[in-house]
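During the practical work, I selected for study one protein's amino acid sequence and its backbone structure tokens, as given directly below:
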Amino acid sequence: MISPDPANYLRHELHAEGRDWVEKNCYIDIWIEVLHAHGLDPMAMLPFTVAVDFEGDQWTFFKPPHVDLWNLYGIDVQEMTVWRSLLEHAVLHTAAGRLVSTEADAFFLPDTQGTDYRTQHTKTTIVIVDVDVERRRLGYFHNAGYFELGGDDFAALFRLGVPPDPTYMPFFAELIRTDRMERTPAGELRRRSAAMLAHHVRRMPAENPVATFAARFAADLPHLQEEGLARYHAYAFATVRQVGAACELASLYLRWLAPSGRKELLDAALAYERVSSAMKALILKGARAVNSKRPGDFTPLFEPASADWARAAELLRAGVGQAARDGASSP
């Protein structure tokens, strides 16, 4: 059973301050740190990021498939039936050496100080690691790190002292079992991951989603300017941040996978990196346009990004079969 120290926890390099997107989305972020805390390499789970798509009003909220976590690390994730209080479930399972992934209200998470904490109710995902009911203390993974909360936040998060409410719908939760966890040698881990990449490349959108998003962004901007920055920030998280973060992770993954500088994977990585950078510029330029309510030309950002996505897809579709066969040779 892991027991990180919140005060001295060192997060994974995927969450380094120099990244375009330090925080990606709450679900992939917790898995990066859960794996890292167990001494496992989270880079191997990232091939699914190449299959993100624009869904019309949002980009794919990308998550590592549970079957990939099992095949790479021997970690088993199953939905939990929350038939009693979440706290009772968490106490039982953490005592048995398991983890509990659960939706939570960021209003009560002190690590969101400056954004959601005690300001607004926002659904997010945490992983419960350590529960002390007597001291009202909780150790949990969230976003880019490991944290601790207690006192009133503990009581509110677990609805202690709240009268039974038959209309209350409990949060979704998952049980994470690590009792059959595997520490696979680096070379074999790359071979397994490369085979998964071949699968996820087949899931890539047939049409260029960046080009589709460009047209939708242009149509949405006037409405966002009318509705203001709060609406834009919600929109940007569901759209710009998701595609940008997914492309940055795809870029870093392909560099990790590439054996001895395999050219087509490195070229695809560079193309994804440029998409990520373009989206980082877009999220800031879009905010300025919404705030000023002035029209803006976003073509100089979208056209190269669209071409880069197409180039990355072309390279992966042409070269991933060979990469899977080679198994991304051991370092």
In short: The first strand starts at residue 76 and ends at 79. The chain is about 50% helix and 10% strand.
